[in-house]
Specification:
globular; five-stranded parallel β-sheet; 2 domains; Rossmann fold; binds N-carbamoyl-L-aspartate
């Protein structure tokens, strides 16, 4: 895909070349995202930010990314607050909202709903997560983070040894990431989950067809020992048929300082799409790792802004005009 004037509905539409271009533009966003400079390249543009499923960082980072490029954000959250609750079709909602916006981001609990919505839209639509199906922008920011973290360790993507850990059955971020990883060849990927939450066969086949070396298991310590990147996920309780079933797997894997120092490689990087479930019965990624240099979860969320800014700039065709609309930042940035 070339991005300009296009929807981003699925990671399946993205080539390695278009990923490299997106990541090049994401790096250009760093001075704006860190408030060293500002740009008003999207002044006058409107983002329709439609979130019909719970979200904190995806929704706010999309909004911030658009604001940081000088655009305005209009937002709606929750199915019950929208006309979809009165029986309006996704097609009609899309026709209406695309008359108010230059680009739309949508999250919805049903698989493929965002594609259905896009059919009625007159402006580009970005999939912010469609139920258990896909989360393309999370996969892009995850891959961006993997590459950056490996570079920080003096390594490259071909040296990746990735352990995907947790709910690999329902985790849409994992599914989307697997698609992107299958654009590469010969990586080491360990899939560690409770038996009932294994990565669906279609994704395992996709990874092995890409020539990756795959190991599948449920032993945490073994799964951690060879990884330079560990990607932990939350038990996706909202996708289970009952709370009791989900409760069986909460806290199944707990990554903490003791396990990290005893079983992981010295500089192993820990990623998580977040939110991490920090309740006592889960505590999947302990707070005692917060000061660990390998803990990349907040670098990952910061990267989300860069990648989403880049996506807007590419889709709206302004990636080459950022500096033309640049100015100084005239407020105190951060804590003194
Ligand atoms: C993820 C999601 O919504 O799929 N969160 C996110 O967007 N960063 C992961 C999760 O909810 O566990």
């Amino acid at each position: 895909m070339t991005y300009r004037g296009q929807h981003l509905l699925s990671v399946k539409d993205i080539s390695l070349e278009s990923i490299d271009e997106l990541f090049r533009v994401a790096e250009l966003m760093r001075p704006y995202a860190t408030r060293q400079k500002m740009t008003r390249v999207l002044q006058g543009a409107v983002l329709g930010n439609m979130f019909f499923e719970p979200s904190t960082r995806t929704r706010v980072s999309f909004g911030s990314a658009f604001n940081l490029l000088g655009g305005e954000v209009r937002e709606t959250t929750g199915l019950s607050n929208s006309a979809l609750a009165k029986g309006e079709s996704l097609y009609d909602t899309a026709q209406v909202l695309s008359g108010y916006s230059d680009v739309i981001v949508m999250r919805h609990p049903a698989a493929h709903s965002v594609s259905e919505f896009a059919e009625g839209s007159r402006v580009p639509v970005i999939n912010g997560g469609d139920g258990p199906n896909e989360h393309p922008t999370q996969a892009l920011l995850d891959l961006f983070t993997i590459k950056n973290e490996l570079a920080r360790l003096g390594q490259n993507i071909q040296q990746l040894s990735l352990t995907l850990l947790g709910d690999l059955k329902y985790g849409r971020t994992v599914h989307s990431l697997c698609h992107l990883l299958s654009l590469y060849h010969g990586l080491k990927i360990q899939l560690i989950s409770p038996d009932a939450l294994k990565l669906p066969t279609a994704y395992v086949d996709m990874l092995s067809n890409a020539g990756h070396q795959i190991e599948i298991g449920s032993d945490l310590e073994k799964g951690l020992s060879q990884a330079n990147i560990i990607y932990q996920t939350r038990i996706q309780e909202e996708r289970f048929s009952s709370e009791e079933e989900a409760a069986r797997y909460k806290g199944y894997f707990r990554l903490n300082k003791k396990i990290y120092s005893e079983h992981c490689l010295p500089d192993a990087v820990i990623m998580h799409p977040l939110p991490r479930d920090s309740r006592n019965n889960a505590n999947e990624l302990d707070n005692d790792l917060n000061e660990e240099p390998g803990l990349a979860i907040f670098r990952q969320t910061d990267n989300g802004v860069l990648v989403r800014m880049a996506l807007f700039a590419c889709i709206l065709g302004v990636k080459d005009q950022l500096s033309k609309y640049e100015s100084e930042v005239n407020w105190q940035v951060g804590l003194k």
